[in-house]
Design brief:
This protein is α/β, with parallel strands linked by helices.
Length: about 300
């Protein structure tokens, strides 16, 4: 089934930026099946040109990745864009001819191609409003582009922005901004819950949170339940952020095991040891939130 989003790019020019953009779009904003990016998406034995034509005939948004070598790619005096059989030229020309949303994506400081520098079928591209994708602001630039694509497809911006999915689902990836919003929200909510319970019991909130060993046994159990719930959403945020950084269980294990140990020790009555492990887990979460970057997919040349 054709994908609604088609990404046109030249491997020798912008494969890394394109791979990073794909990883940012899916699965946070779109499903992988919604994006056609490469020949790997064409089944073995299928007619290559026919498959491309079907994708271009039915897509609703085309992203044209333009890096520093896009315009001049080719041998001296034999520019690839001037060849009617060049695949990038054919992709862009077909998208422009259909008058769908065509977005030039300028990689880093690449200038927008001028109309006089483009072959006739591609000249309308010079009049399309472009977006820029920079290394320094990659997450923000890619998210802004993704939001525009989703709107152009007529879909709601609800993937990973839905509260329940953000806090309780381990699927997908999130950026630093989403991680910190979720992290702060969880702790604010945890303090609010603890304050409400301590107020109902007539216990100072500071004692309820910081001195649980001074509380009666039944109140200690209530305190443990009131605070232990935070680990599920915190771990969900951490896992999705770690996946966005290109890592997996190897990076996540320390956070998971320290948080699990803290909950176990707390329930077993070892409050001091539990606090130590909690501090380790929170420190590791802060490290995850501070780390910058997004995973990228490198394609074979």
């Amino acid at each position: 089934m054709p994908s609604p989003v088609f990404i046109s790019y030249r491997r020798s020019d912008s494969q890394h930026a394109t791979g990073r953009l794909f990883a940012r779009l899916a699965p946070r904003f779109l499903a992988e099946a919604d994006i056609f990016m490469d020949v790997e998406a064409i089944a073995a034995g299928a007619d290559f040109q026919a498959a491309l034509d079907r994708q271009l005939a039915d897509c609703k948004v085309a992203l044209v990745m333009i890096g520093p070598g896009w315009l001049a790619a080719g041998a001296p005096g034999a520019r690839r864009l001037d060849d009617p059989e060049d695949f990038v030229r054919r992709e862009v020309a077909a998208a422009l001819a259909r008058e769908i949303t065509v977005i030039p994506v300028l990689v880093d400081q690449t200038p927008m191609p001028r109309e006089e520098d483009l072959p006739a079928p591609l000249k309308p591209l010079a009049k399309r409003n472009a977006v820029r994708l920079t290394h320094e602001r990659f997450e923000a630039d890619a998210d802004a582009l993704a939001a525009k694509v989703v709107r152009d497809l007529g879909r709601p911006l609800d993937l990973e922005q839905d509260v329940l999915k953000l806090f309780f689902s381990f699927k997908g990836t999130i950026g630093r901004k989403q991680f910190w919003v979720g992290f702060v929200a969880i702790f604010v909510l945890a303090i609010a819950v603890a304050a409400a319970i301590s107020a109902a019991l007539g216990i100072p909130v500071g004692q309820f949170l910081a001195e649980p060993e001074s509380l009666p046994k039944n109140v200690q159990m209530l305190q443990q339940i009131a605070t232990a719930w935070v680990w599920w959403p915190l771990l969900a945020l951490a896992w999705k952020r770690i996946r966005d950084l290109g890592h997996g269980w190897d990076f996540f294990a320390a956070i998971f095991l320290s948080s699990l140990g803290a909950v176990g020790l707390d329930l077993a009555g070892y409050g001091s040891e539990a606090s130590t492990l909690e501090s380790v887990a929170v420190l590791l979460l802060l490290v995850v939130g501070v780390l910058k970057g997004t995973r990228f997919i490198a394609h074979d040349a």
